[in-house]
Amino acid sequence: MDDKIFDRIQDVDLQKTMKTSYIDYAMSVIASRALPDVRDGLKPVQRRILYSMVELNNGPDKPHRKCARIVGDTMGKYHPHGDSSIYGALVYMAQPWSMRCCLVDGHGNFGSVDGDGAAAMRYTEARLTKISMEMIADIGKDTVDFVPNFDETEKEPSVMPSRFPNLLVNGTTGIAVGMATNIPPHNLREVVAACDKIMQNRIEEDRETDIEEILPIIKGPDFPTGGIMMGVSGAVEAYRTGRGKILVRAVTDIETMPNGKSRIIVTELPYLVNKATLIQKIAELVKTKRVEGITDLRDESDREGMRIVIELRHDANANVILNQLFKHTQLQDTFGVIMLALVNNEPKVMNLMEILGHYLSYQEQVVTRRTRYELNKAEERDHILQGLLAALDNIDEVVTIIRRSANVAEARGALMERFGLSEAQAQAIVDMRLRALTGLEREKIESEHAELVATIARLTAILGDKKLLLQVIRDEMNAIAEKYGDARRTQIDLYASTDIENEDLIPTENVLIARSSLGYIKRMSVDNFSVQHRGGRGIRGMTTIDNDVTTDLLMCSNKSYLMFFTNMGRAFRMKTWQIPEAGRTARGTAAINLLNLNPGERISAIIPLVEAEEEGKNLFFVTKNGTIKKTPLNDFRNINRSGIIAIALRDGDELIEVKLTDRTNQIYIVTKNGMSICFDEEDARATGRNSMGVKGITLRDGDEVVGMQLNTQGDSLLVVSEKGMGKKTALSEFRHQGRGGIGTKCYRVTDKTGFLMGVKAVTDEDQIMMITTEGVIIQIRMDELRDLSRITSGVRLIRLDEGSTVAQIAKVRSGLSPDGEETAEEEETGAAEADE
Fold it and tell me: In 3-state terms, what secondary structure has residue 199?
């Protein structure tokens, strides 16, 4: 016995067996469960539900029937996969927020847009909708093939006739094995119009249609829940390639309440967004303070429509909050399009023209088969009528033959022999009633015969002429669109951006950008600082680590561009708001995490620009060794993430300062030993980005450039030394020279003052911020300083602790208006504050 058992054991390759079994399983899921057919746009379970309802005579003109009965019939006859999956598909086809044209008319609780589930199938009822009758139209006229069911006891249609393009009209979503489909719903009238255009071109011009002719007709998806499609680029990409991303935004309105507060009203949501989950997400954002300014949130939706009310604080900016909600919630959602369907039982990703082409090709088959079926029926009936007419012409003889015959078979044979009739004609004569002998009945037969002759001629012509066939399809589809079509629900914003810019989420305000010598950078609110008097001790402005000092401070709008220039002569660009915000005493973020810096590379200059490009402007560079260069700003229009070369540097040299100029400026360069030179900007001709430049000032041994200023930035030159001393001198005291000279003395350097560390051109209306190596900041009004002569050491500007020195100075930009733009007064003086 044991030997017999071992004889039945077979060695198998497990890897091969698993591979074969999994492929079989995958193909079963792909072809028989998850993916729709390109011809009728239905998955097998949907097709079987509709056919079961047809067999139950559950049409739109009949009473609703219990869903449990429909599910039971479907499961018992065609779909042995469990009642829950069948009922789920039935519910989906009855939800007006899920399907653009519902195929099932539900009666009872079929769920809600809040994500509520449908009631049990023993409570709900359903029947076919009117438009679903177009899905099954002519199914009994041999238009589709019928195949055996799972146990070969019944026959089921392999595909529905689908007299309208259901795949595009209702869309579909499904996850198979290794692939998925996600086709959005479309407007019935638009899809039919596109089909009409294709057929029109074939009929009238005998040519194929280009997708460019279809795109203006099918403008984009038309979701049952409405919403606003942001731009058409995503839809166009999907229509051209079969894949794309479509951005859909909720329909909102900002209202002003009687108390002066604002509120946001949401009336339509993106497709398949759960309203209850959305409201919960908004409440969570308010609770965690990611979105501030919302005081009340409630759902006022009813049978009349959707209405979500978001009340705002009195001082809240409604547009900013709305953009934040678009960014962080499904008030704005992306619909990923994958137009994948079964073609000849094989999955295929198709573009719009391929889907329409397969559908119209299928409709040609359906109408051809229907026409052939109707022609056969008409010919069969006309054949009978011809026999009846022959009998009526010889009625006396026919009656005699029938009376003499012993039985029906003998009478049928005698008639066939006497008049040359077919068996069917002879049988019809035998079965003919006496009332057919009346004159009225004869007229009816003759009239029907004449109509059948015309019908046969028409059907024969359709089968013989493809253009006539296409015209029949056109007329029938246009009639369906006219009967069931409606206006587009999803609006299309043709000029909308495909994404929300992050700066739309923040209000416009002035901010402070601080940078340390070790490369830490942060964005701060100007509200953290207040003006103090000369000689004060300042407040803590930045926490530093060992050997780190604050080296840069500038004020600008948070909507400005920041151009970063490094000591190695490279340029980068980013928006101000992209720099992480930090508190007054925080260290900030390492610049290497924001910019693609090389080892040893550090930021040496930052220029804020209100606009990305400013026509007619130049960038003026100065290096530590006194080299200068002028390059048009337009040469920096395209700066990639890895940066670009701004200036070619000689060995041992570094870029220390960059200014934005307008060709009319005078340049002031100051060195750490107190030397300065003044010359016209036009003394240096404009060169390309990769050039080295020319000599700006001749330096003595041990000296180096500490800064550069423009005459348009002020009427006096403020110089500050390392030990907190400084002075303000009128620009008129600086003698104009040509570039490249030694220059003149502008400050008396002593042991008490230390070397010069910075220079700023100022006016009496300006304020200066000074930063020490310990991170202490003091803000001083310039009208508190009187002008001193050129060769002096000045006065004490800040009281320093032991071992502390001044690290950097920066001018507060008083010329910025609340929206971040420069005022007219500043525009008249050129790029006065361009370096701050």
Answer: helix
As a whole number of angstroms, the distance between CA 378 and CA 373 comes to 9
State the Cα–Cα distance between residues 664 and 685, nearest whole angstrom.
12
Number of Cβ atoms within 10 Å of the Cβ of 621: 25
Which residue did the predictor score with more confidence, 198 or 820? 198
pLDDT given for residue 824 in this prediction = 29
DSSP of 72-91, one letter per residue?
Answer: HHHHHHT--S-HHHHHHHHH
Residue of 22, 123, 520, 668 marked active site: 123
pLDDT value at 222 more than 90: yes
Q: Whole-angstrom Cα distance, residue 74 to residue 329?
A: 40
Matching residue, tokens 């009349």: 304
Which whole-number Å values give the CA distances from 546 to 518, 601, 799, in the listed order? Answer: 10, 19, 22
How far apart, in whole angstroms, are the C-alpha atoms of residue 125 and residue 504? 48
Q: Using pLDDT thresholds of 50, 70 and 90, give the confidence band for residue 517.
A: low
Domains of the chain, each with CATH number or no CATH: 17-189 (3.90.199.10), 251-330 (3.30.1360.40), 361-484 (1.10.268.10), 530-544+611-827 (2.120.10.90)
Q: Which residues contact 289 (CB under 8 A, 6 or more apart)?
A: none
Range with the largest mean pLDDT of 93-102, 307-316, 593-602:
93-102
Asked if 809 and 528 touch (Cβ cutoff 8 Å), the reply is: no
**CA 574, CA 595: separation in Å to the nearest integer?**
9
End-to-end Cα separation, the chain, in angstroms: 97
Q: Is 123 a catalytic residue?
A: yes
Please give the single-letter amino acid code of residue 172.
T
Which residue do the tokens 């399009």 mark? 337
Predicted confidence at residue 818, as pLDDT, reads 31
Q: Is 732 exposed, middle or buried (0-12, 13-18, 19+ CB in 10 A)?
A: exposed
pLDDT at 8: 73
**Residue 516 amino acid letter:** S
- How large is the average pLDDT for residues 259-264? 86
d(CA 414, CA 51): 46
**126 or 552, which is more confident:** 126
Diameter over CA atoms, the chain:
149
Among residues 79, 138, 70, the alpha carbon closest in space to that of 104 is found at 70
CB 590 within 8 A of CB 641: no
When the pLDDT of each residue in the chain is averaged and rounded to a whole number, the result is 85
Q: How confident is the model at residue 486 (pLDDT cuts 50, 70, 90)?
A: very high
609's tokens: 């620009």
Residue 652 and residue 106: Cα distance in Å, rounded? 81
Is 542 a residue whose pLDDT tops 50? no
Residue 821, number of CB atoms within 10 A of its CB: 17
Helix axes 466-484, 188-200, angle to 10 degrees: 160
Backbone angles phi, psi at 384, to 5 degrees: -65, -45
Binned at pLDDT 50, 70 and 90, residue 529 comes out as: low
Residues 218 and 326 sit within 8 Å (Cβ to Cβ): no
Structure tokens of 492? 């299309």
Query: What's residue 776's pLDDT?
Result: 80
